[in-house]
Amino acid sequence: MTETITPAREADVVAQAPQQLFIGGRWVDARGGRTLDVVDPSTGSTLCAVADASVDDGWDALHAADAAQADFAAMAPRERADILRRAFELMHERADDLALLMTLEMGKPLAESRGEVAYAAEFFRHFSEEAVRIDGGYQVAPKGGTRFLVTKQPVGVSLFVTPWNFPLAMGTRKLGPALAAGCASVLKPAGQTPLSMLALAEILREAGVPDGVVNILVTSDSSGVMEPLIRSGIARKLSFTGSTGVGRKLLEQCAEHVMRTSMELGGNAAFVVFDDADLDKAVEGAMLAKMRNSGEACTAANRIFVHRDVIEEFGRRLTERMAALRVGRGVDAGVDVGPMIDAGQRDKVAELVSDAVDSGARVLAGGETPGGEGYFYLPTVLTDVPGSARMRDEEIFGPVAPLTPFDTEEEAIAAVNSTEFGLVNYVYTEGLTRGLRVGEALESGMVGLNQGVVSNPAAPFGGVKESGLGREGGSEGIDEFLETKYLGIGMA
C-alpha cells in the first residue's frame, strides 16, 4: 500500500527532527547562535534552519570525544555490540520517518530512501557482529626463547566527513566500525543534508552510546571548523567521503601528525557490455548502475562501453527504459527520479550534456531540464560519445547515460583504465573466463560482474588510484580503526 504524504506529514517529520548540534551527549545551539537553512531540492524552499557550528563548537566536540575515549575503549566488546544492535533495531522501527526526512532534504524517491535506511542500518548489525571478533595472535619465536603476543587496540579519536548523496548510509558506514572498535568520534555531515545524521545521533543516544562518544557538527564552514581539529594532534584517524580534490587537501593536513586515513574519493565508473552479454540483464544492470540515486553516486556508471555489434539494440532498450521514468518530487507516488541536490549540480549536468552534443554525441532521450520549480534534469541517453567529451573524464553525478562503441576486449580494457580514478567498474558477459580475465585486468577496487550494484556492508568498499585509500565494510572495515600492537615476551 502506498502512503500518501501530506504537507502536514512533511512538516511534522521535519519539526520532530533534531536541529541542534550534538556534543558531549547533549543537544546544544551553536555558540554564536548561527544557523543554516536546509532546502528541499524538489521545490527550492526552506525546510528548516539548523545550528551552524563555529570553530569553538568544533573544539568542544573534539574535547568531548577525547574525554570519552579511554572509558569507551575499555568497554567490553559485547557491550559495544549490544549498543550497535539496539541502534539497528531503532532504525528499523523509525524507518518511515527516517526515509521521509531523507527524501525531503535530499530529494530521492521514498522507495530509494527506504532502501537506504535498511542499507544504513545493516552497517550497525554487521559491525555489532565484528565487535566481538577482534582477534590477535600468540606465537613462539622462530629461534625460541621469546613469545610474540599480538593484540589490536582502538586507533583513538576519529574524525568523519560525510557527503550529501547518501546522508544516512555514509554515516553508519563510518560510525559502525568506529563504535565496534572502541573509537570516539566527531562527525560532520554535509550542510545540504544534515537532518538524517542528526536524527541518527538521537537514535544512538537512545541506544546507549556514552556521552561524548559520538558528536555531530553541522557547519557552513567545513574547512574552517575541521582543519584545526585535524591538525590538533588529538584525533588519530580521519575518514572522508567526497571529491578527490578535497581529499588531497585533507591528506596534506593529516600528514602533519601522520594520522590514519580512509578516503572514498571520486569515481569514473565504466559499464562494459560485451557482444555475448544477456542484453535484458545488461540493460537492467545499467539502470541500477546509472540511476541509483538519480546518478548522484560515486559508483554510478559514468562511461558505458558497448560492443559495436549490440550497441544499437542495447541503446534502443535502454532509451525505452530511461524515457519511461517518471520525474518529480520524491514524496509523490510513482516517482522514479528526484531532483539534483541543488541548482549548481543541475547546471553542471546540463553543461556536460551540451559539451558532449557539441563534440558529436547524439541524444536518444532527455537532454534537457524540465520547466517548473526544483532542480530537475530529465533522464538522458547519449550515443556515440567521443573521447574528447568532458563527461568521459569528469563525474556526471546525474541521470545521464553516455554510450560509446568498442570492437575488441583489449580496446575496452584500455578505455576503462584510461582514467586516474579506480573505484568500481561493471562488466556484462556470459563468458566466465572472459569475465574473470577482464575483471582482473580492470584497475578498480571493485568490479560488478553481471550485476549493477556492488555495495554491501559485508564486503570491502573502496577504490585504487585517485579514488581513495582504505576500505569500508566487510571484516576489513573494522581494521581501519584498530592499531596492531606486538608484545615480545622473554621466557628465559
TrEMBL record:
Presence of keyword DNA-binding: no
Start and end residues of each Aldehyde dehydrogenase domain: 27-486
CDD domains the UniProt entry points to: ALDH_F5_SSADH_GabD (cd07103)
Pfam family, one: Aldedh
The entry's keywords: Oxidoreductase
Residue positions of the active site: E264
Gene3D superfamilies: Aldehyde Dehydrogenase, Chain A, domain 1 (3.40.605.10), Aldehyde Dehydrogenase, Chain A, domain 2 (3.40.309.10)
Family named by the database record: Belongs to the aldehyde dehydrogenase family.
PANTHER family: SUCCINATE-SEMIALDEHYDE DEHYDROGENASE, MITOCHONDRIAL
Name listed for the protein in its UniProt record: NAD-dependent succinate-semialdehyde dehydrogenase
